[in-house]
Design a protein that fits this description.
6 helices, single chain, about 120 residues, mainly alpha
């Protein structure tokens, strides 16, 4: 579960260009994730939205586990494999998924700390 949360957070980060690593995630994995993200309604409350995005990530990673393992095998020295996977998927979604910016922005808002209420006197 911790890995999925980490991947979830990485998808929000603006992916940097991988200087020494010019890998692309399997297109079917990125396409399936994009399709799943496109089915998420922006209207539900934050908890439901968060659950819907996590369900997409879990479903796509589980259904493409062979591709995920193969992709991660390409980088045996990389010790932060979920970080790498998040960068690769985020980069692919930024380039090819029209609904991704909307989902990403909503997720950024969810991760921002809530403003502290100033007690009134």
């Amino acid at each position: 579960m911790r890995h999925i949360i980490f991947l979830f957070a990485l998808l929000l980060a603006m992916p940097r260009v991988l200087h020494a690593q010019h890998a692309e995630p399997p297109s079917t994995m990125a396409n399936d994730l994009c399709s799943c993200l496109g089915t998420i309604s922006p209207k539900p409350d934050d908890r439901q939205f968060d659950r819907d995005v996590r369900l997409c990530l879990n479903t796509v990673v589980a259904s493409h586990s062979r591709e995920v393992v193969e992709l991660l095998r390409q980088y045996p020295a990389e010790d932060r494999k979920m970080y790498l996977l998040g960068l690769l998927l985020g980069h692919a979604l930024d380039r090819t998924c029209p609904q991704y910016p909307l989902v990403k922005e909503r997720l950024r808002l969810l991760l921002q700390p809530a403003p502290k209420a100033i007690p009134s006197t």
